[in-house]
Write a structure and sequence with these properties.
single chain, 289 residues, alpha/beta, Rossmann fold, 8 strands, 43% helix
Length: 289
């Protein structure tokens, strides 16, 4: 994104290309599947009027580089990615910040808030509930909508090879079918995501989903049993046009995980940062302030 100054930051075996724009309190924006940080192109400039906005691609995706994950997604658990990104934020000068995450990025974001409460002062999650709750909620009526949770978590290299055999079709189908309308995301942006959907990125996404199945839900279950909560204010949004999230169930879930929760629907399908950028920014600015 043209407004951002980019630098490359290494954390362990991972490398992140990190963009920074604006001045003021820091906010980290994390994208979801199957996109890159370019999804924030209409939201980030609005937030940068009052905040230092930090963006990067998730581990192993887009311009980020990382080794392939292990058999159960080792290296790609949300705890591991969150810890790396806390170091990234410290490297660019921010030991305390807000984090906004969509989809898979939202899972990294809330794990960051749980594991690093001294660093995260505000949390916004888009289209998600905690992973353990999500697995428990995937009954018959919702199971078809959430097929990537089980398909992409299959042992390597099955999922990688099946997706890779028709990668562009898979990505374009996902973007068109999850949005409120098939053309909701502009063609130039779709083309960017196609170019970024490389074999290495597909492997990273599969590792992310494997980690969710084998590692993340166990970590969530342990936290839930122990009564651990997100200690900062939480903002939750979901798209009014996404059938699988057509009620206030997300708020019910998050109010079990945090004491200060607000939010509601936005006029969007799954891809809120692009389908409802103005409405999202209008909600985020007072929340972050």
């Amino acid at each position: 994104m043209e407004e951002f100054d980019y630098t490359t930051i290494g954390v362990g075996e991972s490398t992140y290309v990190v963009g920074v724009a604006g001045e003021g309190p820091a906010v980290l924006l994390l994208h979801g599947f199957p996109q890159t940080h370019y999804c924030w192109r209409d939201v980030a400039p609005q937030l940068s009027r009052d905040h230092t906005v930090v963006v990067c691609d998730l581990k192993g995706v887009g311009e980020s580089r990382a080794p392939a994950g292990g058999p159960i997604g080792d290296g790609y658990s949300k705890r591991e990615i969150a810890a790396e990104l806390v170091q990234v934020m410290a490297h660019v000068g921010h030991d305390r910040f807000a984090v906004v995450g969509h989809d898979r990025g939202g899972r990294v974001a809330y794990r960051m808030a749980l594991d690093h409460p001294e660093q995260v002062d505000r949390l916004c999650v888009l289209h998600i509930i905690p992973t353990v709750d999500q697995f428990e909620a995937m009954a018959a009526d919702a199971s078809l909508d959430y097929y990537p949770w089980f398909f992409l978590a299959q042992p390597a290299p099955f999922a990688e090879r099946v997706v890779g055999a028709s990668a562009e079709y898979f990505l374009r189908h996902t973007l068109a079918s999850w949005a409120a309308t098939p053309d909701a995301i502009e063609p130039a942006a779709v083309d960017r995501y196609v170019r970024a959907f490389t074999p290495e990125a597909i492997s990273a996404w599969c590792s992310d989903y494997r980690a969710a199945f084998h590692v993340d839900r166990r970590l969530d279950a342990d936290d839930r049993t122990a009564g651990r909560k997100v200690r900062c204010p939480v903002l939750v949004h979901w798209g009014a046009e996404e059938a699988a999230m057509a009620d206030d169930g997300l708020l019910v879930s998050w109010r079990r995980w945090a004491d200060e929760v607000e939010g509601g629907t936005l006029p969007s399908g799954h891809f809120i940062p692009e389908e409802a950028a103005g409405e999202l920014a209008a909600s985020l600015r007072p929340f972050l302030a």
